[in-house]
Amino acid sequence: MSGRLTVIGLGPGNADQVTPEAIRAVTEASFFYGYKPYLDRLELRQDQTRIASDNREELARSNEALAKAAEGHSVAVVSGGDPGVFAMAAAVCEAIEAGPPEWRSIELAVVPGVTAMLAVAARIGAPLGHDFCAISLSDNLKPWELIELRLLAAAGAGFVIALYNPISKARPWQLGGAFECLKAILPGTTPVIFGRAAGRPDERIEVFLLADAHAAKADMSTCVIIGSPETRIIKRGDKPALVYTPRSATGSRK
After folding, report:
1. CA 112, CA 109: separation in Å to the nearest integer?
2. Mind spelling out the 3-state secondary structure of 46-99?
3. How big is the chain by its Cα radius of gyration, in Å?
4. pTM
5. Which is nearest to 85 in space by CA: 46, 150, 137, 136?
């Protein structure tokens, strides 16, 4: 007997940004696996069960959820933001590939959500208005040398760069290292957006120039967006400035 596993993206934290598809998926599942702060965002019925685990136990969480689904249950794995962006959908796929053959017959659905860089970008204008990429600064699953290589390649090609997992107690220096790496090839006037908790009551959105950007402005709830050399800041008097990247590009680095 095989059940169903749904990987659900809950968005950046604002209830208004949870999609109707995600809300419907929550009503249909019986067992919920996830990081406790994400599970706490759900209003579950008495007949629904939550199983919380630590933030760095993605593979173990996926294995437990798949085993429960293989018993014939309707199971959900919840994720903040979008589950396919540095989140649980990849961990579930990894577990399926390495797991027993019967896991491949489990009905699997991935429900997308608003990811952090989109929520931050919407609050400040349109910094992702032209070509962009997303890079995780966590070196838990890849070497720092590879992260530096990707940062330099993306910046050199003129991409706007969204940085996920910029800093934590266990990784206090990586964001500062990324800034120093990028300062070697990007103008000091490049806009840098620190978007903390976008859409939540404790939201903080700040804009600096790369020359003045400091890692201390970020925490685990921050997504950092580094503009391209063509990204612009529009001053608006008493209103918050707008940051946008033009839809056309010249390739200029000045």
Report:
1. 10
2. CCCEEEEECCCCHHHHHHHHHHHHHCCCEEEEEECECCCCCCHHHHHHHHHHHC
3. 20
4. 0.94
5. 136
In angstroms, the CA 55 to CA 75 distance is: 19
Helix (H, G, I), strand (E, B) or coil at 203: coil
Beta strand pairing call for 160-164 and 125-126: unpaired
**What string of pLDDT tens digits covers the 254 residues of the chain?**
579 999 999 999 999 999 999 999 999 999 999 999 999 999 999 999 999 998 889 999 999 999 999 999 999 999 999 999 999 999 999 999 999 999 999 999 999 999 999 999 999 999 999 999 999 999 999 999 999 999 999 999 999 999 999 998 889 999 999 999 999 999 999 999 999 999 899 999 999 999 999 999 999 899 999 999 999 999 999 999 999 999 988 876 55
Integer CA distances (angstroms), 85 to 143, 177, 241, in order: 19, 23, 28
Task: Show the tokens assigned to 187.
Answer: 């103008």
With vertex at residue 59, the alpha carbon angle to CA 87 and CA 5, rounded to the nearest 5 degrees, is 75
The answer to whether 150 touches 135, Cβ cutoff 8 Å, is yes
